[in-house]
Amino acid sequence: MSANDILDVLNIQRDELKQPPKKKLKPTADSNPRLGMARELYNLIGPNTPPVNLSSSAYNTNTKDRFKSKPSPWTRIEFKPRKDLKVNFNHWVKGSRELLESEEETKKPYFFEKFNVKLDIPELVDEETFDLFMKEIEEHEKEVQAILAQRREEKEQARKREREESAKLKETEKSSDNKLHQVKKEPAEVPKESQGDDKKSDEEDSSNEKSETKEHQDEKKEDQEKESEDEQKSELGQKWSYDETKYLFELCSAFELKWPIVYDRYNWHTTSRTLEDLKEQFYRICAKIFESQENSNPALIESLKVFSKSREIERKNYLENLLKRTPAEIAEEESLVIEARRFELAAKKMLLERSHLLTLLDSPQTTQPIQQYQSSQGLTNLYNNLMIIDKHQKKRQLQQQQHRSIGSLNQDPVPPPIPIAASSSFKKDRSFQTHLQQYLSGLLKQNQIVNPSVKQEANTIQQLLAKRLTQKEEEAYGLFFHGTEKLTPGVILRSSQKLPGLQQKQSVLKSVNSVLHELDIPTAGGTSWKPIMPTRKTMTKYDELIRSVVALLDVKKGKDKLEAEIRLIKSQRGLQ
Amino acid sequence: MSSNTKRIKFVSISVPVIYGNNAVRLSPEKRKPNTPPDHTHEWTVFFKPVLNNIDLTPLIKKVTFKLHETYENAVRSVEKPPYQVTETGWGEFEIIIKIHFHTGLELGISEKNFQIFHGLKLHPFNPQQPLKENGEVNSILYDELVFQEPTEKVFEMLTRKPVNLLPYSLSNPNNRDQEFIRTDETDELARLEVYIKKIKDEIEHQHNGYKDLEQEKLALLQ
Fold first, then answer.
1. Are residues B176 and B196 located together in one domain of the fold?
2. What does pTM read for this prediction?
3. Where is coiled-coil annotated (chain B) (predicted)?
4. Preferred mutation among B112, B139, B146, B197 to probe A, highest tally of A CBs within 10 A
């Protein structure tokens, strides 16, 4: 289906004159098959020529350009990665042979030479100094051992004193327990670890380890002591000779302090050493060497000295244990953590509640500064203020009582005001909002929403609301809320108020008057009789009166009609 | 300013006022040289709020009393309280008391001027009222100015003080017909109640009669 077909269907005649040449064009277009577009879709384009050139010739232009440019020269050239090497190497380098073989180029060091870095490992000293170092180390260790032993003794004594009363059985138990511990703590074969075991990280680890273990030191002191004992034994059995140390240093420099490899390749006669042994020996000898040198880095020596074999072993044990945990153990640990957190939260909550309770129990604290009441003058001021408030209240009570007495004298049908004695109900009355107040406060809110800048008026209503008038007091203000009753805005006289009862025909009103006359109700003669004192109340009563009279008239009318009917029937009957 | 002229719907404020006149026979010594010889009475027509402590001047610009056309300067305008006019005369006529409110949007008062008609009384008109010794005649009426849907400004003015707080006792027992107290209202209410009762009774009576007649009619039709 082509565009022309669609135009036909829609009955649109378009470019009638131009169609013949188009038809001629089509076969040529078909001969050249279009790419990237279905033929049917292409037909739908219709007589409009597509803005984009659809032919794929654009791809060819690039390759043509590429052929035009000259390729840059590459040369196969000899090179020496290191000056001392005697083997010949060749590689391809970009650039012409003439350029590369020029003087400047050949003098340049090998490009990748800079990546061939070496670790700065100190040379091992001669045998004599080494012996000296080892002696020093031994002495130092002995000192440490002595201190440790002393401490242990002290502890033991303290413990003994504590357990003097306890049975001997227990003592034996303890010792056997200790033995068990010893067995457990025998340094296990440390598996090769893939972690970055180069010098630096190890140092960090050890320092971290130190801080970590500090907390547990007290508990673990005993174990550590025992370990050091073991070490001593092993140390005695496997003393480091000069040759062995030299071998160690050689390995270290060969493998760039990659400890797992060093450990792996370590093979010295009969002695079997752990990774930690190797590290310990290397670090302590290095520290000694640096110390003997003049321009050494003290921080480096410090960090070297920090290494402790026992701690390192302990750390690895910990890690191993962590690694060997069963899933059940992991789950248990997690649940324990959660539990602990829960406990923490509960404790926090409890503390908070307790503090609340305490504040409640506490005497109320003033939010305002009491500074001003601390002087005698301030106190008198406060007293006076309180007196004034008291007086006001008394006055109010008195007034209300007076009103009540007058009301009772004149048989005031208005219910007497709520006795003040019932103070709770009095308060309730105050908090109660009359219809007017409810309406006004609503209005106020609305106004604030519509126009928050209305302040003047808001103040008035607010002030009035703040007075919290009772219904009676509202009356005293002459205020009245008409509910949904429609009012004509403006001033009127109460006496000429449009009462619904008076919305009658003049004739009806006339008869109302005559009815009132009949019933001996004084109407002062005229038809426009009104209450003498037209207040809101009297006018509503008056309205009620008028309406009842109108109702009476209606009944009368109905009765009269009925009477007439009866008379008619009677007269008809009489005729019959 | 527009906020001041906004009217508060469904609310009315009533201000009790009294108006009317006092009249005494003109004694010979009171006569002035310019008093026409045929004038027999001296009277004072007035308009004022019931409560003396209510000041309506922020609201009321002036009060004009329109006297009979035969008077010189028939429209007397009083700008300040007391709003009253004292004149001499011989005849009774209707005085139009017109209250002019302040105008101007900026004041927030947009009430129309307002008229009260008062029939001047020179002679005793109420047969129930005992004549006074000095022959004074008081025709004083109570009414209320009702501000229906007051503008907010007016609302503000009128709620500064309780304006409708009628006294419970007369300031002077002799002023029985010149003052209006709260108990008068209750008396009137009680009276009206009695009237309504009467009417209700009558309605009941008539209704019963109507029912009887209906019965009679039914009996007749059968």
1. no
2. 0.43
3. none
4. B146
